[in-house]
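Late entry, evening session. Most of the bench is empty. Finally got around to the prediction I had been postponing all week. Sequence below, unchanged from the version circulated by S.P.
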Amino acid sequence: MSAARIVAPGHATLADLRAILEGAVLELPAGWEAPVARSVSALAARIATGEALYGVNTGFGKLASQRIGTEDLAKLQRNLLRSHAAGIGPFMPAPVVRLILALKALSLARGASAVRPEVVSALLALLRADVLPAIPAKGSVGASGDLAPLAHMALVLIGEGEAFVGEEVLPGAEALKRAGLAPLELGPKEGLALLNGTQVSTALALAGLFATQSLWRSALVAGAMSVDAARGSDTPFDPRIHALRGQPGQIRAAAALRALLEGSAIRESHRTGDSRVQDPYCLRCQPQVMGACLDLLDHAAAVLEREANAVTDNPLVTAEGEVLSGGNFHAEPVAFAADTIALALAEIGALSERRIALLTDPVLSGLPAFLVREGGLNSGFMIAQVTAAALASENKSLAHPRSVDSLPTSANQEDHVSMATGAALRLAEMADNTAGILAIEFLAAAQGIGFHRPLATSEVLEKALAEIRGIAAPWDEDRLMAPDIAAARRLVEHGVFAALLR
């Protein structure tokens, strides 16, 4: 775990959220308890009037017309958590669970959910102790909130469910005991507030966003290397071209490519006398494609930052004591953002695969077939390109928008849902696929540049080349390809190439 991150409720930045995902412990600034306590008092006053308040002294969903006696209000909240913990599938990864806990704490600490400060403190205590609820990944349709996964999270607070302590999965009560924590006794509405909301889909989407932003940067580095490997032109990156179109992402992508290629002796060697008029699109149109991807990612980032700061349970309790029943739990904004990230991931990988195909084609690249001497005896990068094609094709299927789907739930009370959690969940698989494609491109581009020695590429790209040669020797004759791909993929996933882009 890294140092604490002090974040005011409603004011979390993307940098804050990334730090928490990577292990920082959330802390709230002094004074956060006051609005939370006021919300609890306001709800207590309304309960005392005897009126029906959804989820407080009534059943849930289609059962909202059923009144619950005062003596059963605590039991109502416990039963809610138990019955809604119906998730299946593998457990969510630890970084995502940390972010879920933090997002839920930040949302409840806004003071509109009528939960006691002790509930927020209990969530923060789990984070500090690194006791992470075991949350099955599947079972949410993104409305009425991420009910099943958040129920699994909340069960640990009351000493039920399961939690990770290190690598060990323990019953919730044992996990709390090891950390020196006591189980909570839930008050009115507190169970509902814990499991109502978009924190799971938002955490998954944020994890996908951060991974994709890093892959986008890595892909520009790989694309620039491929330009030099194929002896391509840098004219398509001229700022005058992109200024005339005015798309901001395109302008930024072109500037990054110019900087990456600046000073390349390979480029200078064929600036005159090259008979090719134009390069294929996978080289020439990188600013247009990657710039459009960047614009999509920027939009998704803004949506998810807002959602991370939102109050998304129901009903909400105002500072004036009004109880408002609404639909902030509907995760349509998250679903659209996740689908947008998926489109960018698919295109980043698809363009990279086309560059690999170009480099292995001697007609297009001018390099030895499949980037190896003595072709026929050696197959070189022939099947590595096939692997990249398989991954790119898989991403195309995974990129189908999930937000266009809906199945009614809760006896048609919840008759339109967002499917945001599935939309966000598939981003990790797509990011894995894209990292694999880029790993193959880095290896192929490094091999192609090697054929131009003693000419050097740019200073920045020589650093990238050195990283590749640190894990994979030049391909002089056929050997096992998979270990090289795996090693290059680790570099991509650790952000080694992304860090080269200034």
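Two things to note before I forget:
The first helix runs from residue 14 to 21.
The first strand starts at residue 4 and ends at 6.
Will write this up properly tomorrow.
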